[in-house]
Amino acid sequence: MKNIRIFKLFSAILAMFVMFLTVSISIASCKEDNPGSVKTFTVIFNSNGGSSVSPQTVNEGDRLEEPIEPIKIGNIFEGWYRESSLTNKWDFATNVVTSSFTLFASWTTESFNTFTVTFESNDGSPVADRIVEEGERLTSPASPSKTGHRFAGWYKEASLTTLWSFDIDVISSNITLYAKWEMFDGVTVPFETREDVLKFLKNCASDGNILFGKHLEYRAGIDENKQRWWNSNIHTAVPTHGDTYRITGKQPAVLGMDVFEPFQANPAQPNVVNSMISTVKVFAGTMKGLIAISCHIENPWWHVNGRQGASYRYIDPNNPNVVRQILETNGPVQLKQGFTVKEYFDAKVDEAINAMLEMKLANGRQIPLMVRLFHENSREWFWWGDTRCSAAEYIALYKYTADRMKARVENLSFIYAPDRNWVDLSATGKYMDRYPGNDYVDILAYDDYFIINQDVFNHGGTYSNGLQGAITRLRALSQYANTHDKVVMLAETGLMLPGGVVTQNNWFTNHFYQALTAEGVNLSFFVIWSPWPWEDDSGLIFPYRKVSPEADNLRDFVSRDRIKMNDFMMEQ
């Protein structure tokens, strides 16, 4: 009986176990067949102003996957917190999700140590201090200058032992860098300062060298078929599309450009402005040439009035004294709604200044520019001419504009160039009556298209055209330059008679060269103007046919010892 009772008890326990196992399997099976019964929760990441982080959805009891750290400029990420008050930091290794909630990013402001770099220029021009963050590299400042010396770099010690490398060295403390100088009695080519340019030009005059210049050499000219060509391409290499190069196979030593003309296209053409800047950079840098800047500034009234009322862009018949209107700083004259004449003029000058500021050498130095302001002022055809404003008004405008340019642009020298209608340099004569003063003039010049040894009209005898008149004027300028430390040039020249150089096919050697090399003439350079085919061909001031007597004569001219082309500049 006892064994039977034990057997029954065992059977009952076994039955209960089997029933329990069956129920468990059934429950597990139900869970597998109904996954929606598992709870899931969503966790949102609030980056508190940093880059966005995607939410995560996880099962109850699972851990979150730690996301990529967000980014916030000027801040360092410190972790994710359960509360917006940033009290309890979330531990992705141990914490599990039991509900939906938001994690908040914690940030600390990124702080940098900054240090002062002082530049000791050792009697050179001053260089401003720099503030630099720890571990950063210092950008190279513009090189200082020192008369009679060449700058040779910045050094770490006053003893000038270790050269500072701007590409490698980093800032870790307040430091002083010391300028090293080398004795130097010449000029830096490519030219880096206005002093380089002026000294070079004076040396040319004393040595008998005359630099060949051409206006708009790579911008405009006349092709083999006597058709005017224009080029607005941006030059990044040495240009070869030019009249001088096509006819002679040589490049000019001086390039003439106009810093206002590209802004006066209608409509404005940015590619023309960029082409001007790029061409200047290549010519002054790669070709080591000099840049002569002209300033053909339109009459503001003619421009704003829809280019109506006059056939000539420099004159407006209803506003004869634009100069006085510009000089009236707070004057009542309104050019257009919201603009006085002065304000409009200032804006146009500033456009030219901005373009000049982009004309830099590869080392970042400003290219020296020779600027010819308000030329041919002794005549009537510009709004700044002698019948358009008084001498005092002209001088005030010249000084005002030069000062505005010099205030922002380095390395400017200025050319004063009336027309040819003067005889001498007397105080009341046509040349000196509007002279702005030696402090505002570096280069004495004038414009002359009638240098030829034959009878030409002379305007009633008040002054002389022709070869002898040109020699007289150039001698007067040379004498003044010698006693006042100036440079002499011909700012605009060529032969502007009917037929041009085509009919006067020995003009370069038998007429022009005689004026340049006459006794008592100390000319540094000249600029031949860009040609154009007028009806009587008086604009053919440059040969257009490569095979022609006038082209042969030009090649003879540029081959003469005293005439220096761009190869002379490259040898410096």
Q: How would you describe this structure in keywords?
A:
28% helix, 21 strands, Immunoglobulin-like, single chain, TIM Barrel, 8-stranded parallel β-barrel, 4-stranded mixed beta sheet, 3 domains, 572 residues, alpha/beta
Description:
Helix 9 (466-484) runs parallel beside helix 11 (507-516) and helix 11 (507-516) runs parallel beside helix 12. By secondary structure, the chain is an alpha/beta fold. The chain contains 13 helices and 21 strands. An eight-stranded parallel beta barrel has the order 9-12-13-16-17-18-19-20, surrounded by four helices. Helices cover 28% and strands 19% of the residues. It has helices spanning 2-33, 194-207, 243-248, 270-285, 300-304, 322-327, 341-357, 391-406, 466-484, 500-503, 507-516, 549-558, 566-570; strands at residues 40-46, 56-59, 75-81, 101-109, 114-120, 130-133, 149-155, 175-183, 210-215, 220-222, 228-230, 254-258, 290-294, 334-336, 339-340, 369-372, 412-416, 443-448, 487-493, 525-528, 563-564. It is elongated, with a radius of gyration of 39 Å. The longest helix has 32 residues, at 2-33. The protein has three domains: 37-109, Listeria-Bacteroides repeat domain (Immunoglobulin-like, Sandwich); 114-183, Listeria-Bacteroides repeat domain (Immunoglobulin-like), CATH 2.60.40.4270; 194-570, TIM Barrel, CATH 3.20.20.
